[in-house]
Amino acid sequence: MDFSTAALVEQVIWDMRVADVPRGDNRAQIDRLFDGFPPWTMQEAENARINTNVNFLDGPKLAADARRSYYNAFLKPKTFFTLTLDAGPARSRPSWSAIVTKEINRTLKNSLPYFEVLRSQIAATVLHGIGPVTWSDDMSWLPTAVDLPNLLIPSRTLLSLKNLCHFAIYREYTAPELSDMIERKDVDPGWNLPLARKAVAWCLKQGSGEEGWGMSMSQEKIVEQVKEDGVFYASDSAPTVNCWDFYYLASEGKQTGWRRRIILDTPANTEIKGEPPGTSLIGEKSGQWLYNGGDRVFASDVREILHFQFGDLSAKSPFRYHSVRSLGWLIYAVCNLQNRLRCKVNDATFESLLNYFRVNNKEDADRLTKIDLHNYGVVPEGVEFVKQQDRWQVNQPLVAGTMTDNRTQMNEAAAQFREGRENQSSKEKTATEIMAEVNSANALVGTMLLLGYTYQKPQYAEITRRFFMPNSTDIEVLECRKRILKQGVPAELLKMCYWDVTPEQVLGSGNKTLQIAMADKLMQVRPLLDPDAQRDALRIYIEANSDDAGLGSRWIPDKPIMVTESMHDAQLMIGSIMAGVQVAPRAGQDFAQMTTALLKGMAEIVKRISTTTQLPTQAELAGLSNLATTVEFYVEQLAQDEGLQELYKQSQADLTELAQIIKQWATELEKNSQQAGAGAGAEAAGEQATTQAKLQAIQLTAQTKAQIAAISAKAKLGQKQEQFAQKQQQTEEKHTADLRKKLKETEVGVAIADATAAQQIKAAREMTKAKFKETEKDKE
Question: If phi over 0 gives left and psi between -120 and 50 gives alpha, with beta otherwise, what is residue 680?
């Protein structure tokens, strides 16, 4: 929808206000019960002749229990959430994640306004199932809690806000607040300055009590008056400019996003006497923009403007915003009935304490006025007490059973919002039975808190996104970013797309008994865990038993943050540079971290020399000079970054101080060398002659040893050659003998084979002849 005119926005807001009237009535009834108002109004109690009209605070007690569960879940942990980096060097991710998590949570934990925002959000969630907060600008990290009547959401809006296309927030600006927004140098051009200035002047007129004074004043006097009376306009009696802050999702223009409009609140015509219809409180006609942002996108996502915490008990899906059913709705009826029943029971109790008399005639009635009931008092003749059996008897078992049943229903309905259940039985339970009840209650509370953590995650993500804004005007954001960057986290990684947000969950879902039991179990398996996990288990045990997250952190501090790649490179470079090796810078190094690490290493070397040898050696002096040259290179790189000018100046001063010490050492070494040179000449000559003689003796000894070694080697070589020749001759003789033996054996074998063959041939011939003769005989 194109909200091009203020009249159209006014109509849409009016429709949402009308639709919210019956919902507001229902919320008002719940508010009365949980605020401690009696079950009947004064008129109802008088008409029904009810003497006891008291709220026995069963509902407020259950709501307090539910809020305590939320407080333990969200406020008790050391940090609200943990940030995990999924970009950059893998070795540096854990340390950078720990730095950013610590610094952002440090700001949140120290902020009392944010603590109150969470309390307000939790209270609204418990009572009505919806806890809204909003950001009124695009820079401040701190959200503001919104009262449910001041937030208008269209009907049929889903809890996911997927189909939310517009909404409105009721705001009340005091004169100083509105004046500060419209009278600054960089004023937003969307403000309708004439109308806004008239609104400020109207506030001044109402506050001064002078008719016609404010509108005729110059704007300069109006601004000055606002400054002077700033304290008054912060009080409850000061008038405010009431308006509706309207946001809608639009796709026209270059970018799709949420646009912003502000209109003055125009009440019903009867609320402003003497003014024509359609007139606002300041006397201006409706249909005007107080603020019109045009086509500018105020936020790309609704989560940058609005956030909800839901405690929904509705069973009908899809789950819608206006169908949320809260704990207050769930136990309202039974708490109201319980209050009425207990009022009646107290009335009956008081009635039973009264004294009733019976008289026989009208004349005896006068005697009642003369009765004085005291010890040993006398009742006149004709007057008698009405005995107990003659009076109306209350069915006490029925009343007691009904009250017990109501109490049971309240406890069961609120079980998932409370840490435990009340024990109505007089029987002493065993430890196993108690632990079973605790686990059952924790399962219900844990489910509720799981939804709470899930809904809270977008708020933490939006707060983190605002802390990552480099151009933020929020002082706390700028200070936090400065601390983060000073510890070496690269500025280019401070973007929400690189980080994951995980809400910190409390052990045992806020149940103290179960938290201690789980901590004891962790201590039993602690020896089996890694060293880092053992530290976490011990810290959890201390926090569970002391109920103090700070105590666990002090006694078991976090593991020291590991060095980054740039700091590690600098530490390795120092040794090579001191040895005289030139080390070239590597691509991707962080100059700030390199400068800091190199200066620290250089200072440690200078301190060591100052406390031990007093003066360095020539090699150490040369190494320190090379190191100073390298540090100077990195310091000059810092000068090119405007955001590191403070670090550049400090590093330059540190380097200059160290360089002066090195220069002083060089002067002292040179002076000592010159003084020792003249007196040590002769001694040096004698030492040189002695050294030459020693060298000659060593050389002669070496030559002798070499000759002896050569002769010995030659003799050993001759012996080895002679032994080889003898062994070779023996081998040849043995080989010849073996050949002769094999030849003889071959000759004998051939002769035997020839003789055998000759005998076989001769036998074959004889057999042939015999067969031939037999054949001839047969022919004859």
Answer: alpha
Distance CA 206, CA 194 (A): 18
Cα–Cα distance, 463 to 591 (Å, whole number): 29
Residue-wise pLDDT for 393-408, tens only, equals 778 888 888 888 888 8
- In the block, residue with structure tokens 């071959």: 746
- Output DSSP code: residue 504: P
Q: Name the residue with higher pLDDT: 236 or 314.
A: 314
Q: Report the number of secondary-structure helices (H) and strands (E) in the chain.
A: 20, 12
Residue type, 345: V
Q: How many whole angstroms separate alpha carbon 63 and alpha carbon 463?
A: 28
Q: Does 438 score more than 70 pLDDT?
A: no
Cβ–Cβ < 8 Å for 356, 57: no
Q: What's the CA gap between 601 and 603, in Å, rounded?
A: 5
What residues are paired with 130 via a beta bridge?
310
Q: How confident is the model at residue 666 (pLDDT cuts 50, 70, 90)?
A: confident
Cα 84 to chain center, whole Å? 9
Q: Is 347 exposed, middle or buried (0-12, 13-18, 19+ CB in 10 A)?
A: middle
Ranges of H-type helices in 487-564: 512-525, 531-546, 549-555
CB burial of 418-452 (b: ≥16 within 10 Å; e: otherwise) equals: bbbbeeeeeeeeeeeeeeeebeebbebbbebbeeb
pLDDT of residue 72: 83
Q: What is the pLDDT of residues 599-624, one digit of tens each?
A: 888 888 888 888 887 788 888 888 88
The whole-number average pLDDT for the span 756-773 is: 69
Q: Which residues of 146-169 are buried (b: 16+ CB within 10 A; e: fewer)?
A: bebeebbbbeebebebeebebbbb
What is the C-alpha end-to-end distance of the chain, expressed in Å? 147
Least confident range of 57-61, 86-90, 351-355, 657-661: 351-355
Cα 421 to chain center, whole Å?
A: 31
DSSP label at residue 306:
E
DSSP H stretches of helix in 367-473: 396-413, 431-467
- Identify the band that residue 564 occupies on the pLDDT scale cut at 50, 70 and 90: low
The 3-state DSSP class for residue 246 equals strand
Task: Supply φ then ψ for residue 495, to 5 degrees.
Answer: -135, 140
Instruction: Give the number of other CB atoms < 10 A from CB of residue 552.
Output: 20
Question: How distant, in Å, are the alpha carbons of 625, 757, 762, 777 from that of 769?
Answer: 124, 19, 11, 13
What sign for the dihedral angle of Cα 721, 726, 729, 735?
A: negative
C-beta of residue 173 within 8 angstroms of C-beta of residue 265: no
- The string of pLDDT tens digits covering residues 528-552 is 777 777 777 887 788 777 766 666 6
pLDDT band at 658 (very low <50, low <70, confident <90, very high): confident
Tokens 């406890």 — which residue? 411
